[in-house]
User: What shape does this take?
Amino acid sequence: MGLLTIIKKQKLKDNEIRCLILGLDNSGKSTIVNRLLPKDQRSTEITPTVGFQIHTAHIQDRLVSLWDIGGQTTLRPFWDNYYDKTDVLVWCIDVSQPLRFDESARELFSFLQRDRGRPGHDLKLIVALNKIDLLSGSSLTTCVASVQDDLSDVAGAGAVFVRCSGVTGQGMEELSYAMCAD
Ligand SMILES: Nc1nc2c(ncn2[C@@H]2O[C@H](COP(=O)(O)OP(=O)(O)O)[C@@H](O)[C@H]2O)c(=O)[nH]1
Ligand SMILES: [Mg+2]
Assistant: This one.
């Protein structure tokens, strides 16, 4: 490998954004990750994530590594292992499941609580309000207001909330912009 290639690779690495996608099982993490990838890198079928999957892609002209970690109860204790060097945390929520908002808020709280003070504690937090395609009109307004209310204290003032759908692609542009903006 020539020196120029090495320098170029290092530059790309320095510029790389490490993004961790977490949230409860079935909230749509893998579907969102798949949607964020360029068309030629997407899978046609999403299966439940066993363990974790890492994808690297150019998004908004930045090299982004997307760490999609399984959200089942048994896997949650392992979330901490992926925290180091994370630049962006995308916390994914299924807005059509109000009965799970409280569980989601509790898990986000305990994740942030455990890892505060560790390297990367100043990460950018984006809350992806996913599955908006399943709701409309006043039920969408009510669910979004309720989830924002449940999470805003936990997520803190700097958190960005993005409404999206991994299935229809709505809000994906905004999500990728929020991930890559300085
Ligand atoms: N209608 C709808 N279904 C979704 C959306 N995102 C994910 N799903 C569905 O929700 C289920 C769980 O999605 P998956 O990405 O595997 O969730 P994960 O466990 O968080 O990775 C699958 O059946 C997806 O097709 C969405 O935005 N809208
Ligand atoms: Mg998954």
